Amino acid sequence: MGRPRTNDEAVKERLVACATEMLATGPRESVTVRAVAAAAGTSTTAVYSLFGGKDGLIEAVRDRAVAGLFQDLSGAPASEDPLADIYTLAGAYRRWGREHSHLYTVLFGGAQSFDPSGAVGTHDPIRPLLAAIDRAVTASLLAGDPTSIALSLWVTLHGVVTLELAGAFDAPTAEAAFRSAMHATVRGWATPTVFRDLRRTELVL
Questions:
Q1: What are phi and psi of 190, to 5 degrees?
Q2: Residue 16 sits in which domain range?
Q3: Average pLDDT of each block of 10 consecutive residues along the chain (205 residues)?
Q4: 101 φ, ψ (degrees, to nearest 5)
Q5: 74 in a structural domain
Q6: What is the CATH number of the domain that holds 94?
Q7: Which of 51, 100, 115, 142 places its Cα 20 to 30 Å from the Cα of 195?
Q8: pTM
Q9: 126-138 vs 146-165: helix axis angle to the nearest 10?
Q10: Does residue 105 sit within a domain?
């Protein structure tokens, strides 16, 4: 009988899934090559063969999370109203976090850092939001540096989603907190005329 394969796609997928689960539920230090391999039903050789070691495996988990979030945000429908698009992207971000809570925890929960104020790559999840903000600034709907606006919006989103995933809110409270926090943050960057309009109305999230 030949040796079991340690470098096929099925094994790779199991290793990424198990590492994601372990990173989402425990400290990074507790995630060892041996523990992940055992959870995936394979050998430590597979981890080194496929990822080069623990750091490579964790980076693969992070890449999976980044790609998934970018795909969902990029797929959000765009309109001629950049403010409406910002709200749409915020909703897409929240849905992704709720539907992929383990990946969200890996990406933003301390196992890996994510800096929206840094350089934005081609597949950076912040890119669709920055594009909508750029359009809003160009149209004189928002005033400020687009990266600074994106950072403040992300901080707001991250806070609400993190608390929601931690079970700090019931469903109605989470929904109300999301709407009011996003609305207040957008108003804070709005130009005077838009600010007055936003005080009278609430865009659909």
A1: -75, 150
A2: 9-52
A3: 63 92 81 93 93 92 87 90 94 93 78 47 78 95 93 91 92 93 92 72 50
A4: -60, -35
A5: yes
A6: 1.10.357.10
A7: 115
A8: 0.79
A9: 130
A10: yes
